[in-house]
């Protein structure tokens, strides 16, 4: 875990908060490595165990670290901090903020740094980068549309009154994105009095101070949002918006998993007809209640379609869905006789499936997803239509983008209520797998897949954007 040495070309990536942020950061690190840079991924460490979902002790993080020996991961020492009454998310934001001076000490200890690339939640590290005279860029690991909406929020709050939580499904009109129902904005910004929301808005206000913003997307997918970001439509008081570089889709390559043993679900997929399987999985933390698991089971069963379903134990406390959970007891959680009855056309996987390979498999025909951005990108790049069932963070916004903007999926209705009924699950599976609407979606996905592949060719727009970024980095000296 020690920094590796290639002093004049070292890039420090400051990552945070969970697997969904770390995976694309690691992919970015590989991009730098391929171009001869040395890379250090600097991770904050929390003195409070509940806030430490990124700790090297977290099994998912440990797996990512172990799978990438060519990257130096550096655990920054924990700051002095104790606010046991704060919400876990607030604790994490506090810890990251208090880590900025620690990062500065670390940066000063390095002989020479080409750039610092920051995760969304690390705005205070801008000061550390400025103090050592190193250019700072953000790497936004969600969609360009979400970034456009987030960056507009400070202006929105400065120029309006009242709370989003009182607006129900009234539509918000932000530059570059389709109209967003107020209730689809992230939970923490719904109430101005929410201290976490205030902290997030502080982040969005400061992000444009960076020299540039890398985004894990490709232009074809989000042309409108990218244009709005380029024009700085969100920052009315800043003459020159930071340059935007769409460098995605940066996705874990299938061969990473191929190094290990092939997962049994891939062999199962091999035996299924082309485009016949509905894959259902809800991200690295997927939190579904016991009652909801049963409804999903009934829905998948009554749809009549084949399915591959990743099941996790329901969280003990739904508000703490991000804490590690034990393996699920399928016999207890799933309806009686379900596994028997669906044995010929369904497979249930506990905890984790090699999602990228599953999505790329010819047998996969649809993806029921929580709309985490990595999942959306992986589905778009694999050409698989989505059944959108957003759960937490910015996923409802991604749902709006996927369904209303990109037209790559359908919504599972009642996602914002306590329980989605089996009938809705079955209905939407049929819409995507059997209907004319599903056929149109697949056509659009075929294009999304083609454009994703093109974006990453040597002279494709995303590779060119990364080359432009490297040029900018060079000129910043
Ligand atoms: N993932 C996976 N297998 C699983 C669950 C998740 O490989 O069973 C990967 C998935 O491919 C994606 C990441 O974990 O790269 C999840 O990121 P996303 O942004 O979709 O959601 P988050 O976990 O951040 O909510």
From TrEMBL:
The UniProt record lists the keyword DNA-binding: no
Protein name: Glycosyltransferase
InterPro entries from the UniProt entry: UDP-glycosyltransf_plant, UDP_glucos_trans
PANTHER family: GLYCOSYLTRANSFERASE (PTHR48048:SF21)
Gene Ontology molecular function: UDP-glucosyltransferase activity
Keywords: Transferase
UniProt-listed Pfam families: UDPGT
Keyword hit for Lipoprotein: no
Lineage: superkingdom: Eukaryota
């Amino acid at each position: 875990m020690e920094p590796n040495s290639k002093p004049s070309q070292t890039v420090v990536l400051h990552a945070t908060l969970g697997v969904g942020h770390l995976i694309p950061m690691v992919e970015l690190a590989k991009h730098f490595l391929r171009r001869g840079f040395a890379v250090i991924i600097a991770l904050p460490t929390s003195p409070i165990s509940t806030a430490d979902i990124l700790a090297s002790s977290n099994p998912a993080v440990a797996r990512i670290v172990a799978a990438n020996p060519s990257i130096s991961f550096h655990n920054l020492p924990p700051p002095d901090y104790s606010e046991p009454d704060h919400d876990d998310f607030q604790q994490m934001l506090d810890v990251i903020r208090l880590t900025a001076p620690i990062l500065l000490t670390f940066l000063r200890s390095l002989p020479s740094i080409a750039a610092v690339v920051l995760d969304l939640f690390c705005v205070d590290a801008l000061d550390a980068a400025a103090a050592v005279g190193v250019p700072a860029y953000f790497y936004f690991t969600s969609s360009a549309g979400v970034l456009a909406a987030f960056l507009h929020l400070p202006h929105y709050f400065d120029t309006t009154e009242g709370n989003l939580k009182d607006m129900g499904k009234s539509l918000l009109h932000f530059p570059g994105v389709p109209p967003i129902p107020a209730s689809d904005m992230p939970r923490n910004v719904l109430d101005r009095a929410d201290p976490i929301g205030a902290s997030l808005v502080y982040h969005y206000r400061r992000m444009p101070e960076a020299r540039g913003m890398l985004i894990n997307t490709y232009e074809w997918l989000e042309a409108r949002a990218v244009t709005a970001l380029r024009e700085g439509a969100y920052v009315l008081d800043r003459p020159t918006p930071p340059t935007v570089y769409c460098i995605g889709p940066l996705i874990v390559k299938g061969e990473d998993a191929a190094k290990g043993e092939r997962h049994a679900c891939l062999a199962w997929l091999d035996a299924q007809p082309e485009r016949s399987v509905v894959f259902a999985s809800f991200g690295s933390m997927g939190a579904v209640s016991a009652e909801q698991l049963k409804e999903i089971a009934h829905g998948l069963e009554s749809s009549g379609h084949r399915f591959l379903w990743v099941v996790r134990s329901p969280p003990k406390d739904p508000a703490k869905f991000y804490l590690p959970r034990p393996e699920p007891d399928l016999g207890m959680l799933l309806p009686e006789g379900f596994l028997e009855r669906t044995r010929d056309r369904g497979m249930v996987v506990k905890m984790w499936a090699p999602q990228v390979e599953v999505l790329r498999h010819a047998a996969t025909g649809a993806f029921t997803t929580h709309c985490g951005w990595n999942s959306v990108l992986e589905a778009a790049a694999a050409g698989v239509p989505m059944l959108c069932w957003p759960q937490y963070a910015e996923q409802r916004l991604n749902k709006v983008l996927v369904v209303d903007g990109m037209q790559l999926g359908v919504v599972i209705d009642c996602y914002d209520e306590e329980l989605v009924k089996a009938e809705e699950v079955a209905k939407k599976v049929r819409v995507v797998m059997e209907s004319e609407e599903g056929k149109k979606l697949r056509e659009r996905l075929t294009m999304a897949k083609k454009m994703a592949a093109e974006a990453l060719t040597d002279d494709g727009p995303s590779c060119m954007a990364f080359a432009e970024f490297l040029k900018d980095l060079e000129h910043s000296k």
